[in-house]
Amino acid sequence: MALGSLLAWLRVLEEVFKSEMIDEVKTPNLFKWALRFCSDDAVKDVMPRHDRLLEFVVNLIGAWPSPFVNRVRLALKLKSIDYVFLQENFVVKSELLLKSNPIHKKIPVLIHHDKPICESLIIVQYIDEVWSNNGPTLLPSDPYDRAIACFWAAYIDDKLVKAIDVAVKSPDAKKKKAAMEEISPMLAVLEEAFVKCSKGKAFFGGDIIGYVDIAMGPLWGWLKVIESINKLTVLDEATIPNLLKWGERFYNDATVKDVIPQHEKLLDVIIKVFPPMLLHIPSN
Is the pTM of this model over 0.90? Predict the structure, then answer.
């Protein structure tokens, strides 16, 4: 009975990881026992089917260096939600990813109740609504404050993310330089936004990490990577003093430390996997 009660969950693990836990060749007697146990009428009346259990498993398709994946991981951590992290390969996309996100074919993808949810900020909103009774509220409850939070999160994705992407990935030195020149004014805008949204408190969300913090925070390490690659200052204390202090508080938060990689680790990935990115911006 002790082992039998776990059989349905073993089937769940087989589905998630696409591997056999009880192998007919390696463990033939255990395999036959499992079939007999699950076929027993008394067991059928009591034990849940593995496909029903699978509905309650939360899966996240992603890769640990991705700031977008780490937005979702941080939201799940803040909400104390257990999940299975399905690590994607940088080069070859898995069948599960292509099936779960056939439009964009990108990470992250959250799979809940066997249904995929795509796009990091949409997933964070979903997590906040579905698990509203778990942990802190990520989006403000006040309609106006909620709209403002969504505005700044969209600004970060529409403006800052695109500039960072070019600054890190483009092999074209001129394009990298142009992107770098765009980042500083964007950070100055976010400095003002932080002062207004935080109202003198620690985070964009007030006393605790909220939606805008989750949108911005995982990008902070990549801004430091840009500084390291190009030997210049992006995070300037003279122009964004409050945002710099926010960044320190964010990365020193115990929950964040468990999820968001330090920029040294991100830089190591770039050096090993993406050497063409290490073109320096010309100084003139």
Answer: no
